[in-house]
Design goal:
By secondary structure, this protein is α+β, with helices and mostly antiparallel strands. It has six helices and nine strands. It folds into two domains: 76 residues, RNA 2'-phosphotransferase, Tpt1/KptA family, N-terminal domain (Arc Repressor Mutant, subunit A), CATH 1.10.10; 83 residues, ADP-ribosylation fold. It starts with a helix and ends in a 6-residue tail after the last strand. The protein binds ligand HQG. Ligand HQG binds next to strand 4 and helix 4.
């Protein structure tokens, strides 16, 4: 049932990215939580959740927001954390020449002054395709795509990481590496 899985995905994002304490859960520094403890805590908080539903939501999630550990016992959010207890030790890797960031047109003046900042999250989120950037930007209003000269940044010493689900992460993008596209130029 779609609604149920969407609700469950939102619930998992909430406890695994932002507020594990809400259900008495502890995340380790890599973001992992014990699945059985999470289900127990969720049930005590009045949330209908079982092992099958949790694993279905993880498997079918549109953005692969969650990962399950190799032994099948733990779960984490791939990215998007605001909780300070989590600091996933991603390996720094070389990015493609260009990465994309979708945002709303109203944020452009500020972004072109300050660069891209992580805001509440731990990283600036980038994608390797324009389509994803477009849908991310649409969440906040009229979308616009920013092109990030990722390879040039990398060559100047900026670190890039890739989350379990393929989202590219970096700490900050200075304006010199940004150009914005007109959304009407979208193929
Ligand atoms: C903007 C979703 C003004 C930035 C997506 C964005 C992504 C600035 C907003 C993930 C700024 C932050 C993250 C500046 C950045 N001045 N605005 N200097 N710098 N911004 O939601 O990248 O569905 O925290 O452009 O798929 O939109 O949650 O970041 O519009 O991967 O799984 O400030 O969230 O995934 O918004 O999205 P967010 P985001 P989930």
């Amino acid at each position: 049932m779609k609604t149920n899985t969407t609700e469950t995905s939102k619930f998992l994002s909430y406890v695994l990215r932002h507020n594990p304490q809400a259900i008495g859960l502890t995340l380790d520094s890599e973001g992992w939580a014990d699945i059985a403890t999470l289900i127990d805590g969720a049930r005590r908080a009045g949330k209908a959740l079982d092992d099958t539903l949790l694993r279905t939501v993880v498997r079918d999630n549109d953005k692969q927001r969650f990962s399950i550990s190799g032994d099948g016992k733990r779960i984490r959010a791939a990215q998007g954390h605001t909780t300070e207890t989590v600091a996933i030790s991603h390996t720094a890797i070389t990015p493609p020449a260009t990465l994309f960031h979708g945002t709303a047109t109203r944020f452009i003046p500020s972004i072109m002054q300050e660069g891209l900042k992580p805001g509440q999250r731990q990283h600036v989120h980038l994608s390797d395709n324009r389509q994803t950037a477009m849908s991310v930007g649409q969440r906040y209003g009229a979308p616009v795509i920013l092109r990030v000269a990722a390879k040039a940044m990398h060559e100047q010493g900026f670190a890039f990481y890739q989350a379990d689900n393929g989202v590219w992460l970096t700490s900050h993008v200075p304006t010199t590496f940004l150009t914005h596209e007109n959304p009407s130029g979208l193929a």
